[in-house]
Amino acid sequence: MVLHRxxxxxxxQACTVAYRLDETLDKLEQLVRQAASQDGSKLVxxxxxxxxxxxxxxxxxxxxxxxxSEGREEFLxxxxxxxxxxxxSPALLxxxxxxxxxxxxxxxxxxxxxxxxxxLYCTVVFISPKHGLVGKHRKLQPTASExxxxxxGDATDVNVVETSFDVPGSEDTQVTSETFRAxxxxxxxxxxxxxxxxxxxxxxxxxxxxxxxxxxRQVWQSTMTHIALEGRCFVLSACQFARQKDYPEDHPVDxxxxxxxxxxxxxxxxxxxxVGPLGDILxxxxxxGEGILTAEIDLDDxxxxxxxxxxxxxxxxxDLFELVVKTTS
Length: 329
What we know:
Blueprint: E1 6-13, H1 21-39, E2 43-45, E3 62-63, E4 66-67, H2 69-81, H3 90-102, E5 105-113, E6 120-128, E7 132-138, E8 161-168, E9 177-186, H4 195-203, E10 208-210, H5 220-231, E11 234-237, E12 241-243, E13 266-269, E14 272-275, E15 281-286, E16 291-298, H6 300-305
Helix pairs in contact: 1-3
């Protein structure tokens, strides 16, 4: 019998090495190893589009009724920085190797491309140290101009991921290790403003609700706290932190194309945070640069919190309201 379900988790706040896949993978490996060795983290969450990059301020030369040749070249470069998620993908094989070598479960934002097609998706991958890629979720609705370069996800990957964690045994049981299961979900950036998606995850009993993002607004913190309270779950939000110097020289850095460049000016301002099921801030928000947030979480707190609020259980009115999810596209 497992006497506790405690787990050390980490949220990474960092930016892509823009459009350079190998260097971004090197950076990811360094950060995962740091979280695992220094803090003992067994689960690590990375921001939205960490692999492939978030092209802030880019318009890819597209306006209504017209596209430019320069924009097409920019899209080609962005496409080449994305990764394929089939079993022969070198990038995926390396991610699986990093997860396996560090014994950490990875939740990671990537830009996904098809092997031979031109379509891109903003995706989260779930990588187990024991089983490799065990799930993915494509962003259901890219926001505003993101729709120029990202296609929509569909109903085939809006499920939670169940996995097991090995933890040190307690002194009372006199065993060296114990195993427990946990339920993990991911909603990408403004998907977190889709109440029906959140409810779908609550119905599937999510315990670790991951929110990879690039939204660094102060009001994002209120959203993360609300979700933790509403779902009685742990919320792990990982946001990028990037400065102008982290983007290529020809990348736009402001809505005003004539504005002078400042290498130290912030492009994405972070705000990564870990929130408990009763809305308590366990770590963060991190606002002043790249870094790693860690916390030890007790998954039994999710049940403790549902004494007075279970929005898909005793606090639901199924006689009045019904959620219908189309599980096939």
